[in-house]
Amino acid sequence: MIKAKEGKCSDCQNKTRLIAGRCQFCYWKNRKKVKESEAKELEPTEEIKEKKVITVSRNKKKYIIPKQSAKRRSQNVLYLKKRRIFMEQYNTCQARLSNCTILSTDLHHKRGRVGNLLTNERYFLAVCRSCHNYIEAHPIFAKEKGFSLNRL
């Protein structure tokens, strides 16, 4: 974390933590003045009001970051198809740990889900929910038994 700079405020001369050379109170007071002056600049003048010219305020378009990229979306379509086929072929748990419910419901990725590993069936493992939770909670045990592999 960045340590706050301490010094004298350029407006009120109090010694305190500074934001852009001012104490917090003076900083926000100054920001309010700046915003008001910007709003006045956008207002039409008397001459323009008489001519009835409509001014358009500056509205910035907000860019919404997509939850998934186009590449990841296409990978997910392929992954869901491969997952469904794999789970139909292996409908019993392949881990068979304690508290196993035998029917597989989850798909464990031995090497993770990054990039092309998401759709690589060599690293798929059909497991039940309780076994999958145990494998995720105990990574050292999972590597010893071969349920998880190094990602490098």
Describe the structure.
This protein has 152 residues and is mostly helical. The protein has 2 domains: 6-51; 85-145, no CATH class. The chain is built from 5 helices and 4 strands. The protein has helices at 24-42, 46-51, 70-89, 129-137, 139-145, and strands at 6-8, 15-17, 106-109, 124-127. The strands form 2 sheets. Strands 1-2 form a two-stranded antiparallel ribbon. The two termini are 31 Å apart.
How do the strands line up in the largest sheet?
1-2
**Secondary-structure element order, as H and E?**
EEHHHEEHH
Helical segment count? 5
Shape: elongated
Radius of gyration: 30 Å
Distance between the termini: 31 Å
Task: Characterize the largest beta sheet: strand count, sense, and whether it forms a barrel.
Answer: 2 strands, antiparallel
Q: Helicity range of the residues?
A: 40-55%
Q: Average pLDDT across residues?
A: 85
Domain count: the total is 2
What proportion strand?
Answer: 5-15%
Structural class: mainly alpha
Runs in which pLDDT lies below 50 for 5 or more consecutive residues are none
Q: Using DSSP, what is the number of strands?
A: 4
